[in-house]
Amino acid sequence: MKQRSFRRKFGRSLALVAICTAGMSVANAQQPTASVVIDPTHQTGGVIPQRYMGIAIEWSLIERYMNPNAQPAFVNLLRNWDSGFVRVGGGSQDSVPYSADAPNTDKVITNADFGLLRSTLDILNSKPHFDAAPPWGVVIGARMTPTGTTPAGMKAFVQGVATMFAGAENSVAGISLGNEPDQDGYGTTVSANNYKWLADFATYSDPAVSGPWPIMVPNTSTDIVSWQTLADTTRPSRWFWDWPQILDTVAPTVKARAGVFGPWVGDHFYAFARNGTANPPGQWRFATIPLLLGKDHMDALDYLVYKHAGMAAQRALPYRLDETNTSARQGTPGVSDVAASAIYALDMMFHLACPQPPDLPGANAECTVGGVGMNLQNAARNGNANPEQGNAYYNVIYFDSSDAMGPPVPAPEYYGALFFAHFAQGTSSLRRVQVAGQDAASISAWRVEAGANERRLFLINKSTSSLTTSVANVAPGSLMSRMTPFDPTGAGLVLDAASLKIDGRQVRADGTWPGFAPTTVSPAGGVMNVTLGPGEAVVIRSGIPTDVSSRIRIKLAMLGAGDPRPQYVAISNVSGTAIDGPLYLVADGLSPGATLANASGVVSNVAPAGVPYITVLGANQTLGAGVSTLTQLRWSTSDPTISYSPRVLSGPGAP
């Protein structure tokens, strides 16, 4: 795809050249140096819920993403993730003033901004819902600081929300009270300033001030330090160890005020910061590609999530990373805006759902503790204002910084999010998978279950070299999709490439996704070798098709004339989520004397067996939510009528 001129330019150091060329020997890559096994049985494990995905944007970017020129592509880019949350706020919610009727500029929040948010959510939520809540919700960031905030100001703000979201109140997931209070003047601990934050929470969470909306707190930041430093309770680590007191105070209100999306509490996390240095004392904050892909900073995330999600669960509250990305202070050029960021984001989302506490190895094997989602942060190049200066390096979706404010386009990190959103979001039985062999530490492996019969294995290359792993128990007819770096310049960049592809495809210019195109694999003996280049990840979908009839509406037309006799069948996805191909229409209980002349085969693996089926969609096709497809059956029969019960199967393997 065409790359915008505002994307980063940086010199290729010798280290980056090494990253681009390391491990490219085909002969070496073909020899497995790791091994992994797909367990075909059902396992208990964690849940990756719908709406796990999310995007966080600053108030100054509303027009950049949601003006009439930009909104269609922005909506399409979010729809590719299926469902999630749009969080608006961040640092700008505590610095950009609100004025209902002021001229609508980047420097002020107005009702026009609420209107753009409303219209964006209306379009996102126009597709079928999969539960009682809309597919997408918005978290609206409001100011709450120790100075400069008044109850009257909050009342005016939420009145603007009420005015512009009248009739669409269920799209509002909640009002976020303040942003990173531990960095915004409240003090280094929650007890500072005579517990002022707790007092302000009591004031501003009062329905007389903030209205009937759900409340989102505490939005605390996490110090960018090692997990060992976080674990040291004698060392101040912002409000990390104040969470029990915070939750005890806010939990009753947060749960009582919950809306259709339910309650949660949230943190912010960044692995690095742009103001880090290559030498102490800022070395831990300094981002490089190898460090981004390494274990140490992911351990810090695991420690945070395991502790805080566990504290939240003790109070019957879900936990979410309300703001996260690769590197604080708008990201690190050459790290946050390249293919490596997609690999980091993909693996990070699994770790959030199933943290592996570094101080308690094996403690969370069944993923009983974890987060329910995250929001990838987007900002302007130099902070909360002046978007005309360009995109933050860590943005997951690039806005048009020119005066035209045209369609936004996907950043490299977007592809990691898309890969996770499509293949992991909405699945269950999440577990970390053990990898054996000399390169085991370089591969992050996860498994989930999608329906009763499908197992999905994710393999993520976290190294700067190519490597090969053997995979056992791969069922016949399994499907494999691959995410790989793509260098639009043709210079051969890999981890530092400016884009990626999935199954050889990229997002279209209008923001729509052309669909996945997995390869079908049926390895002899169920064992295959998978080679992963730097920055590559694969998902192997293995098993047998699953009955999805409960998500389908079928309309059968009358039999036509002739021999064989044609019959058109309309198959509609009435669920709120897409159904991946292959898609099969099965004719159960077929009346005697009737034969499906254009049958693709006979069901042998999914009971009841011995009945004919026809392939409706191939492996590279998807039946989107609310979408219908038409297929034709051709019947050979001497009777004027036939009878059968239609059943729809979907997924890898033979029916």
Architecture overview:
Helix content is 21%, strand content 26%. With 655 residues, the protein is α/β, with parallel strands linked by helices. The strands form 7 sheets. Strands 2, 13, 14, 15, 17, 18, 19 and 21 form an 8-stranded antiparallel sheet that branches. An 8-stranded parallel barrel has the order 3-4-5-6-7-8-9-10, surrounded by 5 helices.
List the helices and strands and how they pair.
Blueprint: H1 14-21, H2 26-29, E1 34-37, E2 46-48, E3 53-58, H3 62-66, H4 71-79, E4 84-89, H5 111-124, E5 136-142, H6 151-164, E6 172-177, H7 192-204, H8 207-210, E7 215-220, H9 227-231, H10 243-256, E8 265-273, H11 289-293, H12 296-313, E9 319-328, H13 339-353, E10 374-378, E11 397-398, E12 409-410, H14 412-423, E13 427-432, E14 443-450, E15 454-461, E16 467-472, E17 478-486, E18 499-502, E19 519-521, E20 528-532, E21 537-543, E22 546-547, E23 552-556, E24 565-573, E25 579-580, E26 583-588, E27 595-596, E28 601-602, E29 612-617, E30 622-623, E31 628-636, E32 645-650
Parallel strand pairs: 1-16, 3-4, 3-10, 4-5, 5-6, 6-7, 7-8, 8-9, 9-10
Antiparallel strand pairs: 2-13, 11-12, 13-14, 14-15, 15-21, 16-20, 17-18, 17-19, 17-21, 22-32, 23-24, 24-31, 25-30, 26-29, 26-32, 27-31, 28-29
In short:
This protein is of the alpha/beta class and 655 residues long.
